[in-house]
Amino acid sequence: MSFVVPAEWAPHKAMWLGFPSHAELWEDNLPVAQAEVAALARALAGPGAETVKLMTGHPDGEAAAREMLGGVANIEIVPGAFGDIWLRDTGPIFADGRAHGFRFNGWGGKYEMEHDDTVAAQIATASGADLVAHDFILEGGAVDHDGAGTVLTTGQCLLNRNRNPGWTEELATEALGKALGAKKVLWLGEGLVNDHTDGHVDNLARFVAPATVAIPVAWGRGDPNAPAFDDAARRLAEMTDAEGRKIKVVRIPSPGWIDGEDKRPVPASHMNFLIANKAVIVPIYAAQPGEFAMGALREVFPDREVIGLPSTAILTGGGSFHCITQQEPA
Fold first, then answer.
1. By the 8 A CB rule, do 152 and 144 touch?
2. Any catalytic annotation for residue 323?
3. 84-107 pLDDT tens trace
4. Which CATH number among 2.60.40.1120, 3.40.50.970, 3.40.50.1980, 3.75.10.10 corresponds to the domain 12-329?
5. Which one from 126, 323, 324, 328 is the annotated catalytic residue?
């Protein structure tokens, strides 16, 4: 049976969303992170025209979610068990009416938490989809899809020895072809500085239309990711997709240098936007309002409302909106 993973801009049956549930992980950031996720859920269920499946990972999280969002139209609270909210990486990738699950090792052994390796099965069961278990390590944020069999990824992550030792571009391409119908893999190099995911592509480059990829352009002085952005743009400008079309590169202003608690730059990226049925929701960080990025994305998505929402507290956990969601195609 031949199939491909649908593009994110294709219609969705539902959008899965992780809700911060563990006080010991989020500490003082928990209330704000919960408020940011609740705002994202409301935007998805309202202007985004999504059915939101809000997954909680602990009874305390479920109680908070019901208090904040119980009774909101188009939001269903789904009690579950997870280590943390990063459903893009722990959950399944939906394609051909099935949920494709992969082995998960805590981003190369950095953050192995109880229940994270069962999230794909939980979501498959709750969605009524058959689970197809693939015997290699893959996180959903490491790959991006154009809906025609082209997959975008980074060698820093997919070929990292802490995932599938011995993988080459050829072996990885073969595995993605068998598991996800990939016809062609476009290889980028390094991801963002200090990204504990080892360079997930959904912080660096995203398909936004057929044969069209958005990549940040450095903003402000000392943007730590300028070399990675420019390298990705140069590589893609010389590539074609699975249909033989030349890739068009659209540059989107980055948030620039954003300090973490240790004053090192954190992997803040507007590329972690989420494409909903009728909206594009863009993470905004306290140090930068994101107006330029949102303006550029309005040009790319003229048929969707572009909405900027705060993601400063979510980012303290290491990711943003795309990282905590997974779309279920219609």
1. yes
2. yes
3. 999 999 999 999 999 999 999 999
4. 3.75.10.10
5. 323
